[in-house]
What we know:
- Strands 1, 2, 3, 4 and 5 form a five-stranded antiparallel sheet that branches.
- The radius of gyration is 20 Å and the shape is globular.
- About 20% of the residues lie in helices and about 35% in strands.
- The model is unreliable at about 5-20 (pLDDT under 50).
- It has helices at about 1-20, 30-40, 55-65, and strands at about 45, 70-75, 85-90, 95-105, 110-115, 125-130, 135, 150-155, 160-165, 170-175, 180-185.
- The termini are far apart.
- It is built from three helices and eleven strands; from the N terminus they run ααβαββββββββββ.
- The chain has one domain (about 25-185).
Amino acid sequence: MVRIALVVLLVFTGAYARAQAPSDSCQAQVPRALGDALTRAFPRYRTPLETDNAPEDIQFHRAHRGSGCLGVGSADFTGEGKKDYLIGLTALKGSAGLAVIALPKKGGWHFQRVQSWTEDARYRQYVEVVPPGRYERAVAETAPLGPGEKQSMNCPNWGALVGTLEATGIVYCYIGREWLHVWTSR
Length: 186
């Protein structure tokens, strides 16, 4: 009888373990309340999955101390001592992306949509947190500066880097109660 119970227990445990989906490194980084708020605010998009990126990009990220998720970053972007999030959302239809900075506020979240090339589905989106410091405009960028764009800037807090793999990126910094940015080389 004990032997039968042990066999049943082993079979049940093995079936249960196989039924559990492997943890997604992106979903593990997005708090449930934030994920729900993003879904309501951006109904044509979903929160990122690790598999939104190519296997070689995921492998490269892991080899360089990353989690394998190129769609989520978190740091204190505003200097308020709170954990803010940088999220690379994925379109429900097509493969375009949308980058959003999520700041916690009493009773919910404040979202700051940031420009990136990822709205064009031909590019592979990534987001990354960058340390405080000076950021310079890429030499190849010759177009006139746009609204909120700087030639160079000193980022007093952590910055939000949004980009496309194998292309330039945009560093966003919260300076003087506004989001400023600079196109950088990567």
